[in-house]
Fold this sequence. Notes:
By secondary structure, the protein is of the alpha+beta class. It contains four helices and ten strands.
Amino acid sequence: xxxxxxxxxxxxxxxxxxxxxxxxxxxxxxxxxxxxxxxxxxxxxxxxxxxxxxxxxxxxxxxxxxxxxxxxxxxxxxxxxxxxxxxxxxxxxxxxxxxxxxxxxxxxxxxxxxxxxxxxxxxxxxxxxxxxxxxxxxxxxxxxxxxxxxxxxxxxxxxxxxxxxxxx
Length: 168
Ligand SMILES: [Zn+2]
């Protein structure tokens, strides 16, 4: 099973706190495009790594989006125009509604609310989260039982759209 960015964004809007509004308070610092070979699937993923500030700018989060299966070209032409690894190869823009993605962020919202469900839906990038055992009577962290993304990933998606890396 796997998800598109659009599916994750649509789910995210169903949660109480407005992550799109909150993403306006934060800022992206570093943005890197890398290629990552998937041994299991035998194709390249386009890996997008970003450093995103917290709301009070006290700390940064590592936010990461991987497009599952992308063709890389040696030269920049037509659709293949995203410089990967400093321009050694080029990738086409990816689609929010068609391409399958994997994502991660080391903030609390992502780690506790979304990581386990994203893993279940094949949309978690990186290692499986440790099993979280509820120790209090508070409502479950993910009451809707849906995969989704944090405000850092919402902002990253916005920036990628502005840059023409993400389409539709
Ligand atoms: Zn986050």
